# Entry
Amino acid sequence: MIITACKNCLIPNSKPHIIFKNGVCSACLFHEKKNASKGINWKSRKEEFDKLINVIKKKKIDNYHVLVPVSGGKDSITQVSKVINKDLKVLAVNIDYGIKTEIGKYNLNLIADMGADLMIYKPEQVIHKKLIKNCFSDYGDPDSMSHAMLHAMPIRIAYNLKIPMVFLGENSAEEYSGTKSNKNISQKWFKNYALNLGLDTNIISKKYKIDKKKLQNYELLSNDKLKKVNPVFCSYFFHWSSKRNLEIAKKYGFKTSSKCNEGTFRNYVGLDEKINRIHQYLKLLKFGYGRGSDHASEEIRNKNMTRQYGLKLIKKYDRVNLSNFYINDFIKHINITRKQFFFVMNKFKNYKIWNKNKKKLISKIIYENKKK
Ligand SMILES: [Zn+2]
# Structure
C-alpha cells in the first residue's frame, strides 16, 4: 500500500472520502473553483442570502427567526455575526458534548453578548459517556456519536420550536473533501459525513443494548421535516476562510491561546473542548495525518503558505505527543485507567502508515511528489 500526499496541498490519500485526480485532491480542486474569478459568484450568493432573510422576516413566527448551532469557536461567532443586527430573533444552540475548557466557556458566552439568545444543551451523561467510551474502545473515535448529536440536535430543537431557518457552519464535505453537495443538509449528507464510520443509532442500539428511543437526539430529522426548518450552510452563501472568520470573531472579543494548540501551528482552533484532541490524535494514528496537515493544507490552498513551508510545519506539529492535559481529564470523564487508554491507542495504530518497533512515529507517506 503506497500512501502519497496531494501534489498541491499535503493531505494524504488515506484521508476518508477524498478523491485524487492526477495527484491533486478533491479539496484542492474545489478550492480552485471557489477562488477562481469565473468560479462561484459570491455576489449573487450574498443576494440569495439577503432574499432568504427577507422571506423569513415576513413569516409569522412563534418566537425565533433563525437558529444557529454554535461551538463558541471563531466560525460560530462568524455565523452569528451574519444574522444579528438584521431585526431577527436569533437563538444560538451549543451542544455541550464533551469537556469544555475555560477559554472555550469565555468565547461561547460572547455569543449572548452579540445579541443572540444562547441555549446550552447537555445530553444526559449516563448514556452519553457510555457512547464516548464504547466508540473510543471499539472504533477508535470518542467523538463519533457526539458528532452525530451536534449535527442532529440543534435541528430538532428548531423543529420543535417552529423556527423556520437553521444557519449551519461550513459544508465540511465540500471544504475539506471537495465532494459535490448542496446548500442544505440532508439525510444523505448526514449519513456520509456526520456519522463517522457509519455508526447509526440502529447499530449502536443493538450493539450496546441501549433503547433506540433514548438515542433519538443523535438522529437527523427526516428529509420532509428538514424542509420545515431549512437548514443551510453558511459556506454556501459566504466565502469560507478560517483567517477571515478569525478576524471577524476577534472584533467581538474572541480570545486565542497564548501558544499554538497541541498538534497544530495555529493558536485559534480546537480551543473550546478537550476530547477532540484525542479524536485528532487517533486520526493521526489511523490515517497518518493530524491537525497540522489539515491547517497547512488549508493555508496552501488559500495561497497563504508554500507547500515546502507547510511540510516543515507538519513535521514539527502533527506528531506532537498527546499530553496529560487531555489524557487525564478524558480517562476521568469516561472512567478508564491509563493502561486501558494506551491499549486502545495502540490498537488503532496503522502499521501500513507507521514504522513498527520504533518509539518515534516514522511516517511512510510520500510527500515529495513534485507538482507537474
Ligand atoms: Zn490537495
